[in-house]
């Protein structure tokens, strides 16, 4: 029994010594330092067309064990806009011991412009014509491209199969959270088969505050039953004021000698 106890004691001492030695070795060789990402104080200014690698400009990462690990830095996420064209980029880096560090920086797109609506047709319908705003109005964005599928009708007083002028309020947002709005007027008129049709080069335009506009420049052609009219009298009516930002309608009217009237509308948005 004495020999057995002595053997057990010796094995215990050996195992304890091995454990202590292993623990000391682990502490000596385990990296307890965290990596550090150094970010410039000034915002990063880039183009919306720049590759993601451009977001890493000026970023430096170091680690107590691995040294310079700048090449390991990744763009973890880009926030939605804080204000139009300005967002926050979050960077992350991992060292060889799987320690992770993160840092953020303000990013500014120097050439960002807000989304814009566009129209695929004039907003004048005959009373027996089906009105589909999503088929008539689209939107495009400098970051996301065409975002027509995100256009939403937020309010309208439209009544189907009824002659009159109806208001429609639209909104659309891009992936960065920038939301724009547009209030338009839809005209529903009687079905006059012999009325002139006034085709416009555009149905919606954006102009800057104070910008001069010649509305006759947007007339493409006037036809009756598909035949182009060479000689016609055009009347243009509008409450357009280039000095006051807002949405305006420009009404074009052509009346034939037999009393049939054609009507078309150009929507003009004056930006502040």
Structure, described:
With 272 residues, the chain is mainly β. The chain has 2 domains: 36-109, Immunoglobulin-like (Sandwich), CATH 2.60.40.10; 116-271, Immunoglobulins (Immunoglobulin-like). The protein has helices at 2-29, 133-136, and strands spanning 36-38, 44-46, 60-63, 67-68, 74-78, 86-94, 100-109, 116-119, 124-126, 137-141, 145-146, 152-156, 164-173, 179-189, 197-200, 204-208, 219-224, 227-228, 234-238, 246-255, 261-271. A hairpin with a 5-residue loop joins strand 6 (86-94) and strand 7. The termini are far apart.
Structure summarized in a few sentences:
This protein has 272 residues and is mainly beta. 12% of the residues lie in helices and 44% in strands. The relative contact order is 0.11.
Using the coordinates shown, work out and report the CATH topology of the largest domain. Answer: Immunoglobulin-like
CATH architecture of the largest domain: Sandwich
What do we call the CATH homologous superfamily of the largest domain?
Immunoglobulins
CATH class of the largest domain: Mainly Beta
Major sheet attributes: 4 strands, mixed
The helix content is 10-25%
**Molecular shape:** elongated
From the alpha carbons, calculate the radius of gyration and give it in angstroms.
Answer: 34 Å
User: Quick check: average pLDDT?
Assistant: 90
Strand content: 35-45%
Structural class: mainly beta
Q: How many β-strand runs?
A: 21
User: Ends: how far apart?
Assistant: 99 Å
User: Helix-strand pattern, N to C?
Assistant: HEEEEEEEEEHEEEEEEEEEEEE
Strand order of the largest sheet: 2-7-6-5
Count the DSSP helices. 2
Poorly predicted residue ranges: none
- Please, how many domains? 2
